[in-house]
Amino acid sequence: MPSTPLATIMSAHGFDGPCLSVTAMSASGNAGVLNAKQWLEVGLASDVVVVATDNSATPDNVGSLVDVGVCVAERTPLDVCGPLQDAECGLVGGGGG
Length: 97
Known about the structure:
By secondary structure, the protein is an all-alpha fold. The chain has helices at residues 4-13, 28-42, 59-67, 77-80.
């Protein structure tokens, strides 16, 4: 089923062709970029626009990740997971490595 928001944006800007919406946690932006690359390589599209946002950072989702120890809350990103840091604590919203 086509996405109404995407179809509206495409119509407003005169875009035509395939349209894909990727909604998931974490790597959905990467999946969108990879799909766009494939579409360009096989000639399915001549131009692509990739826009990503992660709307999965709800208190319940983040709380569950904190509970299992793969996410850290209430600390700054560089305090938790800095570049070349030996003692990484896990993922943190808005940063990390």
